[in-house]
Specification:
Blueprint (H helix, E strand, L loop, with lengths): L1 H21 L2 H30 L4 H25 L10 H10 L9 H20 L2 E2 L10 E2 L1 H11 L3 H14 L5 H17 L5 H7 L6 H30 L11 E2 L15 H4 L9 H7 L4 H14 L9 H4 L16 E4 L6 E4 L6 H19 L13 H15 L2 H6 L12 H15 L2 H17 L7 H13 L1 E2 L4 E2 L18 H20 L15 H12 L6 H9 L7 H6 L1 H10 L40 E3 L3 H20 L1
The protein binds L-captopril (X8Z) and zinc ion.
Zinc ion binds next to helix 15.
Length: 663
Amino acid sequence: MLWKACALLFFVASIGSSFGDRNNITAAKIWLEEYNTEAEKVRPEAQEASWTWNTNITDYNNRLKLEAEKKKSEFDKRSYNQTLNWDWKNFTEINAKRQFYKIADIGESVLPTDKFQQITKAKSNMQSVYSKARVCNKPGDQDPSKCYPLNPTLENIMAKSTDWKELAWAWEGWRNETGRKMPDDYEKFVELANEAAGMNGYTDNGDYWRSWYETENFEKQMEELFIGLKDLYKLLHAYARKKLKERFVGHPFPDSGQIPAHLLGNMWAQSWGNLFTLLAPYPGKPLDVTEMMREQNYTTRKMFDLSEKFFTDLGLDPMPPKFYNDSMLDKPEDGRDVVCHASAWDFYNRKDFRIKQCTQVTMDWLITTHHEMGHVQYFLQYKDQPVVFRRGANPGFHEAIGDVLALSVSTPKHLKKINLLRPNQNPDDEELQLNFLMNQALKKIAFIPFGYLIDQWRWKVFKGETKKDEYNEDWWNLRCKHQGVSPPVQRFNTDFDAGSKFHVPNNTPYIRYFVSYVIQFQFHKALCKEAGHNGPLHKCDIDQSTEAGNKLAAMMKLGSSKEWPDAMEAITGQRKMNVSDLIEYFAPLEDWLKKEVKNETLGWDDQCGRNFTIPTPPPTSPPTTPTPTPQSSTVKPTSGFDSIHNNKTFIGIFIAILAIFVR
Ligand code: X8Z
Ligand code: ZN
């Protein structure tokens, strides 16, 4: 009897004590600190290995990177298991609860080791294909061994060439050398990423990515923002199409209204700033900042110094001591392969922050420099938060910081101040102002549908609605539907054009940029108010306003410790994303565009995919770009047009009809 009573007592006591432990907030906080200390050792190691590979792509460095990623995933998994010791979901202490929630969210680390290694390998393969790609056989080149990288050659061709054939060569070649080599790895990646998401309680990997926004109906909200901007985009699209038809007279433009995607000054038609000279409302009043920079012997370092000064003049932090030594600010000249796509790096040890980019001396790169420094500034501001809160309030916030500053830097008023406007140009001249707004629109408004559609495509892939053999067709459906662009040459289902855009092989979600392009105008307006700006929004320059700087810093310091509406409220007083500040900014240009396109048909035929209207090729200079050879008997065209294919189809139909009659 006695032993039974003892056993019962022991049982009750042990339940009681374990219950007590699981809710002991003091002990939980001690564990959180231990986690943080450990994370500040594991994460820098993984970052260092990744950095080494990114700045020197070799098999050896790849192996080191995989090893370090494995180690980090083991740490994540171990930590997750330890979170199970706590009843953290019922903690009333909000901050600790949120840290647990973030620590428990381990993404792909949840996979068993063999699968974790498979997914990391699939990603590495795609990234290395992308970053090593070169395109050969340029029209006019005699030497077939001469091949060209994206940065700087192909980017410059897309930016400057007005030769249809050369543009189509670069456009098609880049896709042949990148995306087309990736569908198998991408399919594997999707399968395993979905498996991990499922294990973590999400419906698929897209659901997991969207969870970072902690927003009900996130997809619906994005759609509403997009719809709110579509009319403005259509005006710009119609105007660009009109002018491009004048530039490429005699070349085929689809009757259905899309613009051939290789004509917009950029490899992905995502930003049209390079068409500025063609599209400027007042061509006699150029904004030739790049030329001014070159005349003044700008260097990469000078661009970084200029950018840093704008931050420190707002009262924000300077770059830390090791930053300039450790960063990679130019493309190395020793021929090694590097990941050129610009990025900013937090090593999570509170002292090591870097930028990696292959800078060129241009206005665009000056803006990108501000963009990347914006990321570093965010890292610096939240560096004393626990590691798991060292993130943006949402991923779009991180993308917006540098861009907000660049909105001020790009104004004619500011350019004058830093001697990048010609001495005879008056920054208050309304015609110059309209030119400036056009330049901004070509970067910001043109980007909106592109920023929106990449993850529309990926979310469908993750949901299983788009299968491997539909990857390309669905991609072009979205490109056509939202952006109103069409492929300049025949596309096949063995092509994988989404893979030609860095963020797809690199597995970086993209809706963050769409979010950023909306909220940066909300932030700009709020900071302008803080800086005491009066007058139209597009004329505001917050330079040297420590009031504006303080607001921005206060928001950044939060990291992701609070949900994003709290962070947004800290700057703007609002808790919602909305497009009205962007629309206000561009209002004068919108009026001008409406007059300019009054005789144009706005928009395009939404029936995309294979239903592009095939125009009659011009009699003199047909678009003789090489047609891709179908790779297997199951290959079918996805979309696009080209004269050769068109003629073949026509002849085929003719022979078939003839055969019926003969029979
Ligand atoms: O990838 C970037 C940055 C690095 S976060 C250079 N951006 C997007 C892109 O290049 O596609 C900035 C704008 C959109
Ligand atoms: Zn960025």
